[in-house]
Amino acid sequence: LKLLLPKLINPSSRHNKPTLPPGPPAIPFVLKTTLQRTSLFQLELVLRQLHSKYGPIVALRIPFRPTVFISDRDLAHEALVHAGAALADRPPIVRGPRAIVSNHADITSSSYGPLWRSLRRNLAAEMLHPSRVRLFSRGREWALRILLDKLRLQSENGDRAVGVMESFQFAMFSLLVLMCFGEKLDEKALEEVQSLQYYFLRLFVEFNPFAVLPAITKHVFRRRWDEIAAALRRQEEIFIPLIRSRQQRKLGRRQREGESAGYSYVDSLLDVELEGGRRLREDEIASLCHEFLSGGTDTTSTALQWIMAELVRNREAQGRLREEVEAAAAGKERVEEEDLQRMPYLKAVIAEALRRHPPGHFVLPHRAAKDVVLGGGRYLIPKGAEVHINVAELGWDGRTWEESMSFRPERFLEGGDGSGVDITGSREIKMMPFGAGRRMCPGFGLALLHLEYFVANLVREFEWKAAEGEEVDLSERLEFTTVMKYPLQARICSRRDR
Ligand code: HEM
User: Fold this and answer.
1) Predicted TM-score (pTM) of this structure
2) Where are the transmembrane segments (predicted)?
3) Distance of alpha carbon 304 from its chain centroid, rounded?
4) Which tens digits make up the pLDDT trace of 46-84?
5) 3 state DSSP class of 26
6) φ, ψ for residue 106 (rounded to 5)?
């Protein structure tokens, strides 16, 4: 390390060989430990300063695990697409709650290998392929009804503004639970599972006392450890009977009564054959269900809230969208899925909101499986380094986007700077709310469908206005996703009473 450090810090000793990207001097061990215990995502402000000092690629010289931050679209494309395979790994998960919750069986934190491949292929082909997604159109109608009923009740509040995020989350969660377990759970059960999900999500961004020496810290923070273990047990108590019920159904011995769907994520997981022919255990299936529910609900409802917030602020955009929706679904009770294809402005509104307010400001951490060189041979990302890409900064880059901080859906229509943008980033990256490359979010198609279907119907059903005399505040706050600091309060007036 002594030999290496001067070279890393002093660029003149480079001799044109690729070197670690620029950055502040070596970070002492104490800081490394703190970084590991808190979330790197909380460093966003510090990073902005580092990027303005060192440029679009910055390395923190953390001993044994240099950590690289990228906020430039070409470098991001090089890292995620060209060098995709070498940077498709994930850092090992820090021990403690994160590891217990994922139970070493989820897609998100699996290293780039056979387990990840089997699980991801199963999710993509058996659940998220358009032919599978179509199986749940009745479920989407049902979830939409839940949402509209809740909002209608809220709108009876006269002209007062009401908070809408909880209703968004509940409807989205009900739908994901139906897709996951094939069952419509009652409201009480749904609320309990949902509150457990939020409990686990918070663990990701809170201070993690078990990251260092868990064998000791778990005794020091005994109460907290026991509380997490109890929440996990409770989640399994709820999930495992639901999993068994699908297994019985598969074996032709249907046990549970009530409404159930013909297909579910659990059904696909029961059929997964891992390397060596092993099947997934019940507790592993439970972890994957947890991942499906948390991955699918929180991000999508966060995005939905940002979209509706922008539409409340931009009455002109809301009016234009409503006209498009009315024309495409004329004479129908609801906007149906096939109508969405005739709504370019709706797609533009959603793309613009995802650019301006990506629910995740960073992709999940990537890890270099071997030495990788980026920036035309200039920067070395050594094996074992962590790589973080700043999704939000890419979408706000003034070199790519005109008036990048304004909400202007028109830019995604013909002739605009976002026209024809490839959201998967395979050709080039201009924005990447779902990441890009091998680890890109497999749920992006489903998320876009849910957003389009819900937004079109929400705008058709209600007029959305700000609270009397107030403007919607777009300040941000980091939870698991980047949410509205002041959750949206809107006056929602049914358009059926006009
Ligand atoms: C608006 C909604 C959503 C957004 C903005 C979003 C965003 C992301 C991002 C940025 C990543 C990390 C990519 C990377 O590390 O390079 C990711 C990964 C992932 N997402 Fe999503 N996501 C959304 C919805 C969903 C849905 C609906 C599902 C599933 C039903 C899902 C499942 C996953 C999974 C399993 C991964 C891990 C992929 C892997 O490691 O291979 N997401 N998502």
Assistant:
1) 0.92
2) none
3) 12
4) 888 899 999 999 999 887 889 999 999 999 999 999 998
5) coil
6) -150, 170
Residue among 441, 453, 479, 480 whose CB has most ligand 1 atoms within 8 A, to mutate: 441
Ligand 1 binding pocket includes 136 (Cβ within 6 Å): no
**Stretch (H or E) spanning 347:** helix 344-356
List the beta bridge partners of residue 381: 372
Strands 57-60 and 462-466, bridge-based pairing: unpaired
pLDDT tens digits for range 243-277: 999 999 888 765 555 555 689 999 999 999 998 89
- 441 is an annotated ligand-binding site residue: yes
CA-to-CA dists, residue 203 to 33, 217, 366, angstroms: 17, 16, 20
440 close to ligand 1 (CB < 6 Angstrom): yes
Cα separation, 354 vs 341, whole angstroms: 19
Residue whose pair of structure tokens reads 């139970």 in the numeric block:
103
Does the interface ipTM go beyond 0.95? yes
* β-pair type (386-389, 162-163): unpaired
Closest of 85, 92, 77 to residue 438, by C-alpha: 85
Distance of CA 108 from the midpoint of ligand 1 (Å): 8
Q: From CA 166, how far away is CA 483, in angstroms rounded?
A: 13
Torsions phi, psi of 70, nearest 5?
-120, 135
Residue recorded with tokens 């980033």: 425
> Which residue matches tokens 């706000």?
396
